[in-house]
Amino acid sequence: MAVLYASVFAYSGPDTLHLVGRDWGVQPAFAPGNEVDVGLLQYKHLDANAARTSSGKTTRKEAPYFRRGMASRVVYDDEFGDTVRKSNQVTDPQPMNHAYASFVKSLIGAIYLHAGRAAAKTFIQQHILSRHLDISKLFQFSQPVRDLARLCAREDFEAPVARILSETGRLSRSPVFVVGIYSGRDKLGEAPGASLDEARIRASVAGLKAWYLYSPGQKTLPSDMEVASGGKEGEKKWEPVHVDMGEIVA
């Protein structure tokens, strides 16, 4: 779930939407004055030494070890796994990236309202989801060898075994070893390293990523089954995709 939250934040978080708005040419405008029209989206900067009011508290301060487990974040927190603020009590000044993100979300909402669901989906696909995100770099394994062994045991595979595929310069200053991780006759992962242990760990990480980073070829989205804008039912038939049991609990 941590990787899912990170990927969602990378695609639609305030920092990403801030850059999207800047790419569109959205610029901030100061509060109404002699050079700014009243109808524009406006704001004013808060001075660094300005005193903030003590009234209008938002949420309590984050207490350590209090309701911050992954299951709690799934049930109680927002789409990014962050604590949800109490409604209608946010009085602190908003950062610039949140203001830009609010503009992008409002524009998508306006497209959905005036042009329909299909136009909104196309707009999101072209401007948000079309950006490349290397999800493989979001994974972090503290004990990849142990996690791969637990994964094989859970799936009733043979225990993983590390085998040297090739090597060069064993007695030199910079040797290179290529190690593969096998489960029976199936190779799970392969990676080079400056030592046998490093290559074995990297190969285990490659095997774990190969398992978790699968992508179904033909997938049907739930929104494809909804009623079209013309009143006709969706043409696609619902076909559920494979859902993995989840991450390894070691």
TrEMBL record:
Pfam families: DSRM_MRPL44. GO terms for cellular component: mitochondrion. Keywords: Mitochondrion, Ribonucleoprotein, Ribosomal protein, RNA-binding. Residues 139-218 form the Large ribosomal subunit protein mL44 dsRNA binding domain. This is Large ribosomal subunit protein mL44. GO terms for molecular function: double-stranded RNA binding; ribonuclease III activity; structural constituent of ribosome. It comes from Sclerotinia sclerotiorum (strain ATCC 18683 / 1980 / Ss-1). One of its GO terms (biological process) is RNA processing. Belongs to the ribonuclease III family. Mitochondrion-specific ribosomal protein mL44 subfamily. It is found in: Mitochondrion. The keyword Ribosomal protein applies. Its main location: mitochondrion. The keyword Transmembrane helix does not apply. PANTHER family: LARGE RIBOSOMAL SUBUNIT PROTEIN ML44 (PTHR11207:SF32), RIBONUCLEASE III (PTHR11207).
